[in-house]
Amino acid sequence: MHEGTSETSSSIPSPRQLLSPYLRPDSPTLAVRRQTKRAKGCVSPPPLFLDDTPTTPVQASRPRRTKLTAEERAKKQEQRLRELTERQRWRDANRVRQRRSDTMRDLIVHLDGGFNHDGLDSLIQPLREKLLGDEASVQFSPFSQSTKKFGMIVFERRVRSKYDPIQKLWEPLDEEQVQREATCVHVTMPEQLLESIHTNSLVNQIAEAIPPEIQAATHVQKPTRHTLVIIGLDAYLRQQRSAKNRDYIESVRQRMQHAGAESRPLKLPDKEDVRCKVDHAILQLQMLHGCHVVQVPELDDAILWLHSIACDVSVRPYKLLEVRRKAPMRSGSITGRTELSTYQAMLEQIPRCAPPAIRAITQKYPTFFCLLSTLERCTLEESIDLLAPLECHSGRTTRNLGPQLARRIYETFTAEDGTSIIDS
């Protein structure tokens, strides 16, 4: 039994013996392998799996460039320059403009012929020099000289791009456009102002502000913001008042000297004050017509005001866009995660109540109810005596809470008058 199994096992070849080419030389498969090896120079058959040896990638042959003619090279160079120019136009259009030198060079300032009146002629040259120093364009437009008694300034802007709210980018325009700004500034002296008030023509001087020449040139209709700059009104009214008082005193003196002569009725000064008329007219101009009134004492102050208004007009569209881009303020109730955090947030709203002071207060009075009940049982002096000695530790320094902050805390939580915290 054992001998039979041993003979059978010895007759069956193992897997290694099956792979040996010398075991069965008459096998057709081995014959084909021998022929293949002889033909290929004993090259081993391809492996069943991927070989571990790295293979060098075959470099792809680069396509040869087609030789361009001179005309094609010129067209390609022209297209490239056109693309670079367009890219630069978009880059210039979307450049941040916040400096005065960037915005003033696009501004056109029209000065009215009303500046030829007495007192305003010395204002033109310094204002023109300041505007030209900022690279703005200044033009003299003598329109409506016969009816206008105020000097008038109208602004225009050179527009090279427009804002796209969808893409949130400035899109450059193909052609430069001139756009009128909705701001008109009037400059007057006290004499012209009082004359227009007496003749009831002040509103007409302000309302008929936009020149028809500018409207026809720009074709833009916008609500205009009017600003009236009055130079030296207070000094002029004081001089008028002093002159009337001197005339009255002189008339009284002459009457006393000629007491024996025929007495004439004494002319008293006007009871109706001119100042009241002027204030009423200015208030009516502000409330009913939305005109902003600026009173300056001297010509130098008026020049500074006009230059500042021109700078604000030049940067206005970019400032409005910057405000729209900013994230809106958080509106809603602010709550703490715990009672202690809410308590600390309430103390933070008190002016000059720093974190060291908050830690000292919360250590002495752990809850808001504890602090409020203590303050309600005490008077102002007693609460100051309780809170002022509290020690506030900030790093290596230690200081007391102080009577001023203690008074402010007491007024914040116990006072019935809402304005008492301002006085504390």
From TrEMBL:
Keywords: DNA damage, DNA recombination, DNA repair, Endonuclease, Hydrolase, Magnesium, Meiosis, Metal-binding, Nuclease, Nucleus. Residues 136-308 form the ERCC4 domain. GO terms for molecular function: crossover junction DNA endonuclease activity; DNA binding; metal ion binding. GO terms for cellular component: Holliday junction resolvase complex; nucleus. It is found in: Nucleus. Residues 1-76 are annotated as: Disordered. Residues 1-14 have a biased composition (Polar residues). It comes from the Eukaryota. Gene3D superfamilies: 3.40.50.10130, Crossover junction endonuclease EME1, DNA-binding domain. Its cofactor is Mg(2+). The keyword Hydrolase applies. GO terms for biological process: double-strand break repair; mitotic intra-S DNA damage checkpoint signaling; replication fork processing; resolution of meiotic recombination intermediates. Belongs to the EME1/MMS4 family. This is ERCC4 domain-containing protein.
